[in-house]
């Protein structure tokens, strides 16, 4: 109990915000204090990453791929209409949480998944909590959402609530003191801190709106590329001939399309990564078996002409006369779809002795999941401290605001101002500057923009300076030199907006220089 309750704080900034919460708790109303308690609990938890996007975009499939286990139901069933939170636990356990706060333990389905049908009235369900032993969840809680744009209004509102989109006007009409959190405050503290946004070939206006609502609800200031990553899922289903310049190559077409979508989703996300969630899920979750590898071997042994015919469509693949049993072909299709099958066949033909394990790894490579993982690590993990602290400050502000007590609001406001003046709060300013530049809201020459991104996105000093492996002395000299450069850029030759960013970057370099001057491994 104690370990999870206390949690680990993501870094110095989260620690400062947690201290602020604890200090203020006795000075505010019981209701606000309860909200602060919730904020504290959240600060100690791993980064909360919501997987969001339109219905059927492949969110649950991607969640399974990321966790490395096929546990979230895909396609149909009640559960796909509910929000499910996947957190780390020492024992696998699923709980249904009802809207009235009641909880009920749920057995796993025989295949190890969350049962597609719950056996309770879904209208009474708030969400599902799944605790799993998978290590990935130690660093991030993954929240699967039903999706926007579904025909089912309840699913949409559950998703919107989670993303913080359905905020009331904040009017509270009761004068009665209560320790209960009102709806507004609850959604402010419950919202996810980061989002993995899943799009497919077509982006619609509501994708943009959902991302906008999410960033408004999570960050004290305008956020975007700092806490949102987008993927173009189902990259395998893109017809290359529909994308000019793709030369008939599916992955190239997907990459080009993803770039175009990034331009559409700007400034909400920095870029869009193509991925094949289905292939990633099969390769990562133990679904791809040696029986599948063997079946693929038999498909690879078919005549070229037959194979080309079969790979034209799913129907052709399953119905064409050939000596691989139709049931086996259906299974391959479910796990890999046509593109995955073709990739596996190519791999087998190039290397007939390839083992099932090597084939699985090849499929994983093809899926593009590694790039998504890497991005999650660099973007979210490295910035978790700043992201969590910013989300917590936004919640604290919302709670104080909702209290309706002017003195309380002022006290909280003052405390936040003091915190923001501390050196560790600089990370918040840096994240903000990074967002402004990455989104194009503040225009910068390309090389400078890249420098801001580098300084703002890396956790490690040498990487921030773009000099991995540099000696401490060299790094210090370089940091000081860049600090000086950005200071003069702030004063001369910059627009007012650029100048504000430049001041932040100058200070970032100065702080890096200070750290480098400290004797390695200790503080003075
Ligand atoms: N071809 C292909 N199908 C996919 C991919 N990802 C998911 N799917 C399929 O799309 C359907 C919907 O997926 P699901 O994860 O339930 O979508 P959700 O509603 O967004 O959670 C399922 O049949 C998946 O097998 C992909 O990358 N490629
Ligand atoms: Mg789903």
UniProtKB/TrEMBL annotation:
Residues 164-184 are annotated as: Disordered. One of its GO terms (molecular function) is GTPase activity. Its main location: membrane. One of its GO terms (cellular component) is membrane. SUPFAM superfamilies: P-loop containing nucleoside triphosphate hydrolases. The keyword Transcription regulation does not apply. Keywords: GTP-binding, Hydrolase, Membrane, Nucleotide-binding. It holds the Pfam family Dynamin_N. Residues 171-182 have a biased composition (Acidic residues). The keyword Membrane applies. It is found in: Membrane. This is GTPase.
């Amino acid at each position: 109990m104690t370990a999870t309750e206390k949690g680990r704080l993501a870094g110095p900034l989260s620690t400062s915000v947690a201290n602020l919460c604890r200090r203020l708790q006795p000075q505010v109303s019981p209701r606000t204090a309860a909200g602060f308690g919730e904020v504290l609990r959240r600060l100690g938890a791993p980064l909360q990453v919501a997987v969001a996007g339109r219905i059927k975009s492949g969110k649950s499939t991607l969640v399974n791929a990321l966790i490395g286990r096929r546990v979230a139901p895909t396609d149909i069933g009640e559960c796909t209409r509910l929000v499910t939170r996947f957190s780390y636990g020492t024992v696998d356990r699923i709980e249904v949480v009802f809207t009235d706060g009641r909880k009920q333990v749920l057995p796993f389905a025989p295949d190890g998944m969350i049962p597609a049908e719950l056996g309770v009235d879904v209208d009474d369900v708030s969400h599902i909590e799944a605790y799993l032993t998978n290590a990935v969840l130690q660093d991030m809680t993954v929240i699967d959402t039903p999706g926007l744009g579904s025909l089912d209004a309840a699913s949409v509102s559950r998703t919107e609530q989670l993303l913080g989109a359905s905020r009331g006007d904040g009017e509270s009409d009761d004068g009665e003191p209560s320790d209960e959190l009102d709806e507004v405050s609850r959604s402010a503290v419950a919202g996810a801190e980061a989002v993995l946004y899943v799009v497919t070939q077509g982006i619609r206006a509501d994708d943009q709106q959902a991302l906008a609502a999410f960033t408004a609800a999570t960050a004290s200031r305008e956020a975007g590329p700092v806490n949102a990553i987008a993927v173009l899922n189902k990259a395998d289903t893109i017809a290359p001939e529909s994308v000019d310049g793709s030369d008939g190559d599916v992955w190239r077409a997907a990459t080009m399309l993803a770039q175009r979508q990034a331009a559409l989703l700007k400034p909400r996300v920095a870029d869009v990564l193509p991925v094949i969630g289905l292939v990633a899920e099969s390769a990562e979750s133990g679904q791809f078996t040696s029986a599948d590898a063997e079946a693929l071997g038999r498909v690879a042994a078919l005549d070229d002409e037959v194979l080309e015919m079969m790979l034209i469509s799913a129907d052709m693949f399953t119905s064409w006369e050939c000596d691989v049993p139709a049931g086996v072909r259906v299974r391959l299709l479910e796990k890999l779809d046509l593109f995955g099958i073709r990739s596996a066949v190519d791999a087998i033909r190039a290397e007939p002795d390839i083992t099932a394990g090597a084939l699985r790894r090849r499929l994983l490579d093809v899926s593009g999941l590694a790039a998504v993982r890497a991005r999650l690590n660099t973007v979210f993990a490295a910035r978790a401290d700043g992201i969590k602290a910013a989300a917590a400050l936004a919640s604290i502000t919302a709670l104080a605001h909702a209290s309706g007590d002017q003195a309380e609001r002022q006290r909280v406001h003052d405390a936040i101002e003091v915190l923001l003046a501390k050196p560790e709060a600089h990370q918040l300013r840096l994240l903000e500057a990074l967002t402004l530049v990455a989104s194009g809201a503040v225009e910068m020459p390309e090389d400078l923009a890249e420098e801001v991104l580098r300084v703002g996105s890396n956790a490690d000093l040498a990487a921030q300076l773009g000099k991995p492996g540099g000696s401490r002395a060299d790094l210090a000299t370089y940091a000081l030199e860049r600090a000086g450069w950005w200071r003069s850029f702030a004063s001369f030759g910059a627009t007012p907006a650029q100048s504000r960013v430049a001041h932040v970057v100058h200070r970032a370099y100065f702080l890096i220089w200070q750290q480098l001057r400290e004797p390695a491994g200790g503080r003075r």
